[in-house]
């Protein structure tokens, strides 16, 4: 059942009840996406032309100004930050991460801080915090923007009396500063992506491997064409000769001479990722959420089995960010880590969401569940919770 490389390498698979988690390999790809990646693999193309063509197609499909395929939302945040600091100026692009002579501050509400902030600061930009953990005042943004401000970072889904995107963009734009939205976890739905632009976003970062179910190493930077062209300069392989270099959209660049390998070169994407993401998004647009349904059926099996076993309170929930139903297992703060460790060590091996473990709750997300995982996971959870499964 499991492929030969697993035993060859001495590896054991896990039941992924976390969902699109990079540390567990992300979500399984639909065969149509794999077919597209296989078709892409033997054909040599200019990556800049491929990026431009796929970006134009995705921009039409999604209804946004422009798209650039990246290796993930984290890379898209890096490219957006780099672009906000340099524009299309090849001399400035060549400077990063030395930002001493550039606008190099990114303003962020304290409540919007996140471990992914390193995607911003790795460019050489500096974060400038405003507000407090649960509130920000408009004046606090207005006052802090100055000659060194390159961008304002905004994240959805944070509770508190915070600046919304429209209010943030209104103030930022009054100062001529762009707004970067980290939409990684929140896109799709596509309506939400479009709404970010309606509210004034200049750059939106989205994951390819979360709700779109594209390759785990893919993502999107959405922005206007000129920003996309500059982001491409930070990102693409620049082993080019000035005399023969003629990228698509060259007229946008402020200098005709190419920069050298930029800050984004370390985040390269292969043609398989670019074509795989296009195939995944075309599939998604045809029937949004269709590929979530098999996992949701497994989740229903788990809910029924756990209800019958009655070994801990189980609550059905809905994950607003990923737009899928989930289950919460209230195992209690005193044993939640022990239960997690037993599930991770046992047979089958399983990983549940630990985002709410601080309040004694483990979460089951259906997106990566395979046929049969429901029964196997429920059996294993019951064994651990009733003390009959200690291995
Ligand atoms: C997942 C996530 C990212 C990173 O997305 P990748 O596509 O894995 O690079 C960035 N920001 C937030 C808030 C996320 O949830």
What does the model show?
Strands 2-8-7-6-5-3-4 form a seven-stranded mixed sheet, sandwiched between helices. It has a three-stranded antiparallel sheet with strand order 9-10-12, with helices on one face. The longest helix is centred in the last third of the chain and has 17 residues. The protein is an alpha/beta fold and 391 residues long. It is 38% helix and 15% strand. α4 crosses α10 and α12 runs parallel beside α14. Bound molecules: pyridoxal-5'-phosphate. The site of pyridoxal-5'-phosphate has 12 residues, from α4.
**Would you count the extended β strands for me?**
12
SS summary, helix count = 14
Termini gap: 23 Å
Outline, from the CA principal axes?
A: globular
In percent, how helical is the residue content?
A: 25-40%
Order of strands, main sheet, comes to: 2-8-7-6-5-3-4
Which class do the helix and strand fractions yield? alpha/beta
């Amino acid at each position: 059942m499991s492929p030969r490389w697993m035993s060859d390498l001495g590896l054991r698979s896990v039941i992924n009840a976390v969902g699109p988690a990079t540390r567990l390999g992300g979500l399984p790809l639909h065969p149509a996406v794999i077919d597209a990646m296989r078709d892409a693999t033997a054909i040599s193309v200019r990556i800049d032309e491929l990026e431009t063509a796929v970006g134009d197609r995705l921009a039409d499909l999604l209804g946004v100004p422009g798209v650039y395929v990246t290796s993930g939302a984290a890379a898209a945040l890096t490219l957006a930050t780099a672009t906000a600091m340099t524009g299309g100026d090849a001399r400035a692009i060549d400077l990063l991460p030395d930002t001493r002579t550039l606008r190099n501050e990114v303003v962020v509400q304290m409540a919007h801080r996140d471990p992914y902030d390193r995607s911003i600061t790795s460019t050489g930009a500096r974060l400038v915090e405003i507000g407090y953990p649960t509130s920000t005042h408009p004046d606090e943004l207005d006052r802090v923007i100055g000659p060194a401000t390159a961008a304002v970072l905004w994240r959805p889904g944070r509770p508190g009396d915070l600046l919304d995107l429209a209010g943030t963009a209104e103030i930022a734009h009054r100062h001529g500063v762009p707004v970067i939205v980290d939409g990684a976890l929140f896109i799709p739905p596509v309506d939400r992506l479009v709404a970010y632009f309606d509210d004034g976003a200049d750059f939106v970062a989205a994951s390819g491997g979360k709700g779109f179910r594209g390759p785990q190493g893919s993502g999107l930077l959405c922005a206007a064409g000129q920003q996309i062209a500059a982001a491409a300069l930070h990102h693409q392989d620049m082993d080019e000769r000035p005399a023969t270099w003629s990228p698509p959209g060259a007229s946008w660049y402020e200098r005709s001479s190419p920069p050298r390998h930029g800050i984004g070169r370390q985040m390269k994407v292969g043609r398989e990722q670019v074509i795989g993401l296009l195939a995944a998004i075309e599939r998604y647009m045809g029937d949004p959420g269709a590929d979530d349904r098999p996992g949701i059926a497994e989740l229903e099996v788990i809910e029924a089995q756990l209800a019958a076993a009655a070994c801990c309170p189980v609550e059905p929930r809905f994950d607003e960010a990923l737009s899928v139903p989930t289950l919460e297992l209230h195992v209690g703060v005193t044993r939640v880590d022990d239960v997690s460790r037993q599930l991770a060590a046992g047979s089958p091996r399983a990983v549940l969401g630990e985002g709410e473990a601080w309040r004694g709750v483990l979460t089951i997300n259906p997106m990566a569940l395979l046929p049969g995982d429901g029964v196997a996971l429920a059996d294993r959870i019951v064994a651990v919770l009733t003390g009959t499964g200690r291995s």
